[in-house]
Design a protein that fits this description.
Length: about 160
Amino acid sequence: MRTTALLALTFGLAQAAAAAGTVEVSFVKPQTYADAGQWQRDISATQTQIQQYLQLLAERQLPNGQLLRVEVLDVDRAGWLRHVPHRVDDIRVIRNGADWPRIKLRYTLEAGGQAISSGEETLADLDYMGRFSAYNADDPMRYEKRMLKDWFRARFAAAPR
C-alpha cells in the first residue's frame, strides 16, 4: 500500500513538472468594465481572482516554456449587485436569467519567443446555473472560474490532465 502511494505521488509530481507554462495577465481600463464590482476594492478583488486562477490553469496545463499573455478587456460577472439597507456591502443576486457571466479578452500564446496562437474572444456561459459545478458554493467567482477553465481547455490543453 505504501509503495502504491509513493508511486502515485511521484507520478503526480512528474506530471506537475511537465506542465509548467506561465501566464501574464493585464487588465485594460478596469474602471469601464460592465460589472467587476461596485467599489474599487471589489474590482481589485475580481482582478486578483482572475489573475490567480489563470496562473493556476497555466501552471497545470501549459507545457514548460510556453507563455500565455492575456489582456482582460471587460468583465460582467454572473448576477447583479443589489443594495441592501443597513449593510456595508451590496449582495450579488443570481437568478439564472439574462445575468450570465461574460469576460472579453485578447490573448497570445508564445513558445520560444514566437506567437503560435492569438485571438480576441468574449467568453459567456448562458447555462451557468444549469451545469454541475465542482467549485465551492462559497466561492464568489465560481461561475467565472468554470467559464475560464472551459475556455482554457478548449484553446490550450492538448490532452486532459
